[in-house]
Specification:
CATH class: Alpha Beta
Protein name: Bis(5'-nucleosyl)-tetraphosphatase [asymmetrical]
CATH superfamily: Nucleoside Triphosphate Pyrophosphohydrolase
Cofactor: a divalent metal cation
Organism: Centropus unirufus
Family: Belongs to the Nudix hydrolase family.
Distance between the termini: 40 Å
CATH architecture: Alpha-Beta Complex
GO biological process, one term: AMP biosynthetic process
Order of helices and strands: EEEEHEEEHH
């Protein structure tokens, strides 16, 4: 059976000059793992017994980035499922999209991560080495832009 994990792609909107496009003011939160290859990823983790997928995404976000569900607004209509092998075993990761209510909220990392960055789409894609994660970030960005 596939390992199942869930997480949130978290973004914030910066206060920008009136002339700039709204989409230019969006930054995504990526966390750098403190283990393995120190890859960058949105907060995510394994589903615990008795937990539903969305509960997992919020719990993991709280554990890994110190963000409470009350500090985030879940974006309706976006959900992305990724499938890839980890150590030869299938893994499924489900992401939702969530906006920070206050863009200045402090991020508090757990021991699982050693750094975090707020990144514009182009830089976020550079940090997220995996093609499926890059595609997911671009797709989420398109989704947000289409709602403007």
């Amino acid at each position: 059976m596939a390992v199942r994990a869930c997480g949130l792609i978290i973004y914030r909107r910066l206060q920008s000059a009136p002339s700039s496009k709204v989409t230019d003011s969006i930054e995504y939160l990526l966390l750098q793992t403190s283990y393995g290859t120190h890859h960058w990823t949105p907060p995510k983790g394994h589903v615990d017994p008795g937990e539903d997928d969305l509960q997992t995404a919020f719990r993991e976000t709280q554990e890994e980035a110190g963000l409470q569900a009350s500090q985030l607004t879940l974006v309706e209509g976006y959900k992305k499922e990724l499938h890839y092998p980890v150590c030869g075993k299938p893994k499924t990761v489900i992401y939702w999209l969530a906006e920070m209510k206050d863009s200045n909220t402090e991020i508090k990392l757990s021991e699982e991560h050693q750094a975090f960055q707020w990144l514009k789409l182009e830089d976020a894609c550079k940090f997220a080495e995996y093609e499926d994660m890059q595609a997911t970030l671009k797709e989420a960005h398109q989704f947000l832009c289409s709602k403007e």
